[in-house]
Each structure stands twice: as structure tokens, then as C-alpha cells.
Task: inverse folding
């Protein structure tokens, strides 16, 4: 009887995870309005503005729709110009800048209420053979030794107002596992300007390079900016900092699957003039470097 009950609970949990991931897949699957013109919707993940990772993923999807499938994105460079309004759809206007023999370039502008909120240039490259090397992954505990961020949320849910608890503990499309002492709910104490988290999509994804790159772009905005807060006892949870992503760049080095564990190792070399500079390296569980990210963000101290 107990085995039956536990089995049922596991099946229900898996259904909830797949539902959360399917919602993200649908969010990234843009509506084609006209040639080079797409429309996307937004999802509230807990902030007052559209999540930057959502715009990154949707803009990358829009660009990918206009490129030969034999080419994949190898780099993107983006600026967040205005806060996104979750009450309005986002229009993605793709400019076919160049189609070369080896590289393809696209510019994507995200528009709301007639104004650009986001601007991105993406470069695509066909497969080529060449020299290969990488910086090795640090010796980090594996995901099975780390703590699920969602489980941490469930443990402290009683501290959250009842009307927000279901939203606070809902299943997410991306599972995050923190190293001990690196969770978002740890006390605001000074820490070195680096951190490591394991992440993956919560269920199996189709064999579609576009989808895997878009989902990693979405996930790359999770927690990157917070790395620069570590040395300053600043915390989003405590509310003593005003923050916003200002720009974001990514490089896709090697093939990967977003539904397998990836280590996101981030560091912050500098913070000054109310801006924090952050870098991230994405490794497979086997230690293969598959992507890199860089972001600068606003980190304005707020008196509480």
C-alpha cells in the first residue's frame, strides 16, 4: 500500500514537472506574424518586470527561425533597454544582417508599446573542424550531493504569507541545486565573489538544437547578477538592493543537452559605480565546457 502511494506521488510530481517545462517550451515557441516578425507572451516568475532570461530565449528563438538549420548560434550580445511589461505581448523584429559562406548574422529588436525594450545581435556558424581546448571544471560536489532550491523553498514556505505560498513553491521548468552555503536563502553574510549551481530542465526535451540553446539562454540569467552581491551583504531576498540586468552575452562552444545536469560556475571580477560585472561558465557533468556567459547589472544599494 505504501509503495503504491509513493508511486502515485512520484507520478504526480513528474506530471507537474512536465507541465512546468511544457509551459516554458510554449513560452519560447513564438507566433509568426509576418516574415521576420514574431510575437511572444510573458510569464510572471515572481518579479514586477518581464524576466530577462525569457526575452533572451525568445529573441534567440526568433533569430534561429530565420537561419539555415545546419547552422547553430555561437554567440549573442544583448542590451536590456527598458523594463518589460508582463501585461503586453512582445514583438520580435528580426533583421537579416548577413548570410555568409560560414557565418550568419541577425539583429533582433524586442518591442513593446512601440518602443524597443531589448536589442540583440546573434551570430551563427556552420560546423567546422579546428583546434580545441578548454579550462577544466573545478572539483565541485555533484548534483546528487547538493540541495534543491525548490526543496529549500518548501522548508521555509511557512514564513511566506499564505496567499503567496502556492506560487512560491510551484514547480519550475528549470531545476536548480545549490552547493551548501550558496543558496539564495542563506543569511546576508560576506562571501567570495563566486558561486556554483547545478541546473537542468526538469524533464526530457526533444532533439532540437534551437530549443536547447533557447532554454540555456533562459536559464543563464538565473542568479548570474547575484554573484556580484556576495562580497557586500546585499540580497534580493532582504530587499536592500535595486537590481536590473543591463546587458548579457553568451558563447555556445560545444553541443549539449539542456535536460542533462550542467554546472553553472559564476564569478564577479569587479563591482563599481553601482554596477556589478559577472561571468559564467557552463559545464556538463562530465566536465565539458559547453557555454560561457557575461553580464553587467545594476546593483544600487537601497536603505531598509
Result:
Amino acid at each position: 500500500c505504501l509503495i503504491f502511494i509513493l508511486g502515485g506521488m512520484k507520478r504526480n510530481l513528474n506530471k507537474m514537472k512536465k507541465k512546468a517545462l511544457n509551459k516554458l517550451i510554449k513560452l519560447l515557441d513564438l507566433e509568426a506574424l509576418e516574415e521576420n516578425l514574431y510575437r511572444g507572451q510573458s510569464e510572471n516568475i515572481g518579479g514586477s518586470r518581464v524576466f530577462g532570461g525569457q526575452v533572451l530565449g525568445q529573441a534567440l528563438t526568433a533569430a534561429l527561425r530565420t537561419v539555415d538549420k545546419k547552422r547553430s548560434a555561437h554567440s549573442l550580445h544583448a542590451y536590456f533597454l527598458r523594463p518589460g511589461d508582463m501585461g503586453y505581448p512582445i514583438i520580435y523584429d528580426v533583421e537579416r544582417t548577413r548570410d555568409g559562406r560560414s557565418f550568419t548574422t541577425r539583429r533582433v529588436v524586442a518591442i513593446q508599446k512601440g518602443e524597443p525594450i531589448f536589442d540583440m545581435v546573434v551570430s551563427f556558424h556552420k560546423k567546422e573542424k579546428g583546434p580545441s581546448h578548454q579550462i577544466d571544471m573545478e572539483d565541485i560536489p555533484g548534483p546528487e550531493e547538493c540541495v534543491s532550491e525548490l526543496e529549500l523553498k518548501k522548508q521555509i514556505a511557512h514564513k511566506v504569507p499564505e496567499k503567496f505560498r502556492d506560487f512560491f513553491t510551484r514547480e519550475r521548468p528549470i531545476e536548480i541545486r545549490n552547493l551548501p552555503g550558496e543558496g539564495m536563502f542563506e543569511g546576508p553574510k560576506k562571501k567570495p565573489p563566486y558561486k556554483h549551481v547545478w541546473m537542468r530542465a526538469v524533464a526530457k526535451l526533444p532533439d532540437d538544437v534551437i530549443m536547447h540553446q533557447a532554454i540555456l539562454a533562459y536559464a543563464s540569467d538565473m542568479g548570474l547578477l547575484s554573484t556580484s552581491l556576495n562580497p557586500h551583504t546585499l540580497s534580493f531576498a532582504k530587499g536592500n538592493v535595486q537590481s536590473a540586468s543591463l546587458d548579457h552575452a553568451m558563447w555556445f562552444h560545444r553541443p549539449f543537452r539542456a535536460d542533462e545536469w550542467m554546472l553553472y560556475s559564476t564569478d564577479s571580477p569587479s563591482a563599481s559605480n553601482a554596477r556589478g560585472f559577472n561571468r559564467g561558465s557552463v559545464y556538463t557533468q562530465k566536465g565539458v565546457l559547453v557555454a560561457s556567459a557575461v553580464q553587467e547589472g545594476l546593483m544600487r544599494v537601497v536603505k531598509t
